[in-house]
Amino acid sequence: MDANATQRQLLSLLVRSEAIRVRKTPIDLPFWYTSGKPGPFYIHVERLAGDHVAGTLSRINQVLASTAEASERSPQIREIVLSAYRSDAGYQEAISLLSAAFTRMFPDLPAAISGGERRDWFFSIPLAQTLSIPHVYLYKNGTVWPDQPSMLQPRAKPVHVLHVADILNTGSSYVNHWLPALTAAGMTCEDTFTVAVRGQEGKNRLEERGVRVHTPLVMDESVFRDAEAEGLISSFALADVLQYFESPQAWTRQLLATCGEHILQREPELDTVQRSRLRTFVETDPYGLAAEFPAFFRRAREVLAVQS
């Protein structure tokens, strides 16, 4: 299977599993990003791990909350993830596609694959299992634990590890956690394989640090054009996304003009995270639109104050 075929099948899986979501009509609510800015699409790559991904994450959290050492936690996490993998055909299909892409990009397999707490593990663990490569567990507290503990022994040269991630956005997890942890453990990472890349910021940050980024799916205009051509998203959704890519500010201006009141009416439906991101948008006014839409920003502050 060539790279284009892999991308098409992976894209289809992402849309079918609602790992990629888009607005379907002009009055659909926007998706609120970590930055506190709204957008027309959202991607939850971990949804490729099956319908029960929330339950799997919950079981992983229980292990992480325990007082056990990493040497005990890591095998438990491995079994939780592989159990989910063995029980879900869609998850298996996704890993099969990713394995094909991985071996095409890396015909000489790396010494080990690393994955970071928590969502990376949905892909790094089954990929390592499928390819018979040792896996290195990276924890947010800086702990590193490989399947083969001998990898932690002092060496003349560092072990070259390839990091596998669910998605690359800003690259902050790499910079703040994964790369420093690997270095401290006597390992080095010069390549990363991520299921999807969203935007250039993370890619640029990693390449500045000597880490090459490899992915079967870049979330750019061409991907959404392909999705519309395949009947996976509507023509409205495509136009919505393309307008956003051309100018996030202009897209947000259009959103507030057509959907501002609707956003406020449905504010009670937002979860805590989404409400916090809406609050950040209103407080920081990242696109300088408050002067154009004073009624929206005034009402939003009133509504959010009631919900505080």
UniProtKB/TrEMBL annotation:
Domain of life from the UniProt record: Bacteria
Sorted UniProt keywords: Glycosyltransferase, Transferase
UniProt organism field: Alicyclobacillus macrosporangiidus
InterPro entries: PRTase-like, PRTase_dom
Gene Ontology molecular function terms on file: glycosyltransferase activity
Stated name of the protein: Orotate phosphoribosyltransferase
CDD domains, alphabetized: PRTases_typeI
Signal peptide (UniProt feature, chain positions): none
